[in-house]
Amino acid sequence: MIEVADIFRQHAASYQARHVLLPNQLRALRDITYCRTAYFGGHLAQCDHCAHLHYSYHSCRNRHCPKCHGEQTRDWLERQESRLLPCSYFLLTFTLPAGLRKLAWQHQKVVYGALLRAAASTVLTLTADPKWLGATPDIMAVLHTWTRAMLYHPHAHLLVSAGGYCKPDRAWVGLKHPAFLVPVQALSRIFRAKMRQALVGAQLLSHASPEIWDQSWVVHARPAGTGTKVLEYLARIGQFFGWSASSTCPQPPGSALPTTDCSGSRATFHPHRPSRCR
Questions:
Q1: The domain at 70-238 falls in which architecture?
Q2: How many helices (H) does the chain have, and how many strands (E)?
Q3: Count of CB atoms within 10 A of residue 181's CB?
Q4: pTM
């Protein structure tokens, strides 16, 4: 039974010799490699009856670690579920166009922050209009940077309440049409403009492909029920690594985990479901 950490120990040095890793990637690589080893220390327990000693190594607690993400994912999901309002929700997805992904990779902190702020601001701009809602909805935003096929694809998922509070008396305002929040075409245009403004402010506009500002940016919106199922989905994709700690070579057919080919001097992960992103 091979683990992801075993693959990292065997292949990390040669991979780093051919690729440049960002600081957060290096930290995740280190943590996964040395999780529950002497590197992170440990604690000693002694039996009260037979005096047997048992030493347990500490975990890395990195959310990308396949050994550590379970408890962290459950905690995150419980916190978010406690914040849900007793109303219906919509799931909105805002995607960076292909022409911005190289820039996003090179300036992740700036572009990811701009993506989340632009998406939320776009929703607030339209919902503030009495034509659509005239109130401030509840918004939860989650950044996702990869597809199921492990392709780089930055996008933001926003869970938005089907209604909101109106100032100054904070009265609840429901949707005029329960199955419709705001027009997607307007979301796309405003989102594109806000991202452009953010890149201007960060002095990164010249690094973006000029043609993207004439393209239609991909924004999706769909009803999300009470929001609980969407949160479970977001917890799976946003809060932990994409495979388990122990992955056989290969995984059985139908497994939700990527198939691992670890023969010879190469380690390859094959997702079972193809990506259909744009």
A1: 2-Layer Sandwich (3.30)
A2: 7, 11
A3: 26
A4: 0.77
Return per-residue pLDDT of the chain as tens, 278 residues: 678 888 888 888 888 899 888 888 899 999 999 998 888 889 889 899 998 988 888 888 887 888 887 777 888 899 999 999 999 999 999 999 999 999 999 999 999 999 999 999 999 999 999 999 999 999 999 999 988 777 899 999 999 999 999 988 889 999 988 889 999 999 999 999 999 999 999 999 999 999 999 999 999 999 999 999 999 988 877 654 444 454 433 333 333 445 456 665 666 665 545 555 55
Question: What residues does each domain of the chain span?
Answer: 2-66+241-270, 70-238
Rounded Cα distance, 121 and 72, in Å: 29
The residue count for the chain: 278
Structure tokens at 246: 């122990």
Q: Which of 56, 55, 57, 10 is nearest to 37 (CA)?
A: 57
